[in-house]
Amino acid sequence: MTISSPQLTEIDLRQRVLDAVLEYYQYKFQEREFIPGKTYIPVSGKVFDADELQKLVDSSLDFWLTTGSYAKEFEQKFAEWMGVKHCLLVNSGSSANLLALSALTSPKLGDKRLKPGDEVITVAAGFPTTVNPIFQNQLVPVFLDVRLPTYDIDTSQLEAALSPRTRAIMIAHTLGNPFDLTGVMEFARKHDLWVIEDNCDAVGSVYEGQKTGSFGHLATASFYPAHHITMGEGGAVLTRDSRLKKIVESFRDWGRDCWCPPGVDNTCGKRFEWQLGDLPFGYDHKYIYSHVGYNLKMTDMQAAVGCAQLDKLSGFVAKRRDNFRFLYEKLKDLQEFLVLPEATPNSEPSWFGFLLAVREAAPFSRRELVTHLEEKRIGTRLLFGGNLLRQPLYKGLNYRVVGELENTDAVMQNCFWIGVYPGLSEEMLDYVVLTIREFCYGFKEG
User: Fold this and answer.
1) Distances (CA, A) of 1 to 4, 7, 8
2) Where on the phi/psi map is residue 282: left (φ > 0), alpha (ψ -120 to 50), or beta?
3) Fewest CB within a 10 Å sphere: which of 10, 140, 196, 289?
4) Are the CB atoms for 121 and 139 separated by under 8 Å?
5) What pLDDT is stored for residue 444 in this prediction?
6) What pLDDT is recorded for position 350?
7) What is the distance between the alpha carbons of residues 107 and 391, in angstroms, rounded to a whole number?
8) pLDDT, tens digit, for every residue of 228-259?
């Protein structure tokens, strides 16, 4: 005689799966011992616990593989956290930059739209995907220098950069350090320019009491594993402007005119009552296209991870600031060899990394110091592309340059950064400091 088990509900079965996921997390992701000189110390990385893994699996059980309920939840919460009205999730921070700038080319903006040949002010020291959308939209980037040691745009060059074709400004907050938003926004208002903040490295940074990413007409964020929170891949476009939100959404979703979310019909209430372009009256609004768009949406499984990460974001930001302060205090007496980073006035950065520059008069080069650190299992990175105009991909393209870019070249020659991300323990940071100090003072004693 067999005794049958009570009938299990979907809720029961789902909970069984999630309990097993918790058990798996505790086994798979046990904390590993740090061994100085053997355990590699990365510059960045993802920090997560069982909640991320459980939400990821929970989302997969519904097999709703495109954007869905978790994405909607994240967009609402992240917009509120950032202090903006709208957040649109996309598949990467680079895609977010492409969409933000492409949106400004929309015919729906009338005389304010960007047209081929219009100019966009930016900086030459940075990451390519802040600049690439300018070229991709047949616009002309105007490259300015940066100030040291804040590494933000030299706003004293803005007036020299202005021309009759200037229409926008698109720049990043370098390694989480806000650029001079007062100077940039005043210049933009004076000359009626669009402003896009590349906030991918600066989620949680504050300028004069307001979060970066909430100043410009549009802003972007990245959720790659190196960034302040992660979804594996992923990004977002942020805006306070409902008109721009709808345009970005169109470019993200194949260029369609309809704004219904996946799986939903007739949000506008007149799906078969539109007449646009040369289409017949009543052509299904779900298949009317108003922009040359893309499909750059995010999956709901990624957004589920983001929802769990979002609960930890404030703590991550605080830990980054603590790690930055720790390194600064321990290295500040080495300034005869190294230039330490400084926060932009009136700002409180959510640091992405700890940027160092080897002084011209130092008895060693950046290459020697970086090589030593890597040999000691300490990760380093350069400030991305250095002077982007010396990169092979921009040879022969159409752009303008203001000044000589002397500081940008100095960044290319002398700068590198080490990690401050929340996964670094004090034991790890102590080892980093000891290694740098021993290297520098070895030259001094010699």
Assistant:
1) 10, 18, 21
2) left
3) 10
4) no
5) 64
6) 98
7) 33
8) 999 999 999 999 999 999 999 999 999 999 88
The single residue of 173, 217, 227, 291 carrying the catalytic annotation is: 227
For tokens 């977010």, name the residue. 96
Contact 43, 419 (CB under 8 A): yes
Q: DSSP for 128-171?
A: HHHHHHHHHTT-EEEEE-B-TTT--B-GGGHHHH--TTEEEEEE
pLDDT of 6 higher than 80: no
pLDDT mean over 75-104: 98
Architecture of domain 25-255+290-446: 3-Layer(aba) Sandwich (3.40)
Exposure on the CB side of residue 47, measured as CA atoms within 13 A: 21
Q: Concatenate the DSSP letters of all residues of 358-370 into one string.
A: E-TTSSS-HHHHH
Q: What DSSP character marks residue 219?
A: E
Strand partners, 323: none
Please compute the mean of the pLDDT values over residues 379-392 and round it to a whole number.
Answer: 96
pLDDT for res 445: 55
Segments making up each domain of the chain, as ranges = 25-255+290-446
Distance set, CA 441 to CA 5, 337, 357, 359, 380 (Å): 71, 9, 16, 15, 20
Asked about 86 being catalytic, the answer comes back as no
Q: What is the CA radius of gyration of the chain?
A: 24
Neighbours of 254 (CB within 10 A): 16
Structure tokens at 198: 């590349």
Percent over 90 (pLDDT), the chain? 90
Contacts (Cβ under 8 Å, ≥6 apart) of 191: 162, 166
| 118: Cβ contacts below 8 Å, ≥ 6 apart | 139, 140, 165, 166, 167, 168
DSSP reduced 3-state for 46? coil
**CB atoms inside a 10 Å sphere around CB 406:** 11
Place of tokens 């990004």: 235
First to last CA, the chain: 87
Supply the DSSP symbol for 125: B
- Contact (Cβ atoms closer than 8 angstroms) between residue 101 and residue 196: yes
Amino acid at 428: M
